């Protein structure tokens, strides 16, 4: 019997991308900006952030879509919680935070660029092990999630009429409150680390190993800072509900959508020294 399995796999769930559409649904419109060509077009969550056979495997005694179904189970747990948080612009830290951390780790580990890098390191051990690594996100997620409970987590709420938060093909960003000494590497659990993930056009999630209330004492535009972190780590595409969002230009000034399009046309974003690495 020739069983048919879905070929196109989303590395950003449609329920997650729905939060960045014009009407907040999976059927809504997303504005997509290509950072390589500066071309802008309108699309929907179903058509972006996906790759053919990303999680399909050939592991013995398991159906090819076993891991894709495991991901669906995680999505079914997280989706209603995220929608309620977005609707209420608030969360119950005791009940809701574990689901947001699960979404954070889920988005981190399912990123195809990270999986590509991991696969390159393990291809010498054989194709089956390489596929196991890319398909075994639920296992790695259950190991990593408890590590993030030690951080302080807060919601960032977009200012009304500000254009809100943007999304990209790589939604997890890492920054710090202070510059790091030369030779030291910043990671998620470094002193004064600052982790960010947009949750919707109106909400962002911020985690830190330091005093997160320090954000309130810094003279920065948090939305512009947040959006620039999302922009900086993108591997090619930005997604937004509108063209009103703001970002920090390399000189530190606030930029708008047209500024970004002009900037992309004249620069390679991957080679730019962005003004967002620390809050100093």
Structural features, described:
By secondary structure, the chain is of the alpha+beta class. It has one domain. The protein is built from nine helices and twelve strands. It has helices spanning 14-17, 66-88, 93-109, 112-122, 127-135, 137-148, 214-217, 222-233, 257-266; strands at residues 8-10, 30-34, 40-43, 50-52, 152-157, 167-168, 173-176, 193-198, 203-208, 237-240, 247-248, 254-255. A four-stranded antiparallel beta sheet has the order 3-2-10-6, with helices on one face. β8 and β9 (203-208) form a beta hairpin. α3 (93-109) packs across α6. The radius of gyration is 19 Å and the shape is globular. It starts with 7 loop residues before the first strand and ends in a 14-residue tail after the last helix. Residues 122-126 have low confidence and may be disordered.
Brief summary:
The protein has nine helices and twelve strands. With 280 residues, the chain is an alpha+beta fold.
Number of domains: 1
> Given the structure, what is the number of helices?
9
Give the C-alpha Rg.
19 Å
Counting helices, strands and paired strands, the structural category is: alpha+beta
User: Would you list the SSEs in sequence order as H and E?
Assistant: EHEEEHHHHHEEEEEHHEEEH
- Helix percentage: 25-40%
Q: Which strand order spans the largest sheet, edge to edge or round the barrel?
A: 3-2-10-6
Q: For the report, how would you describe the main beta sheet?
A: 4 strands, antiparallel
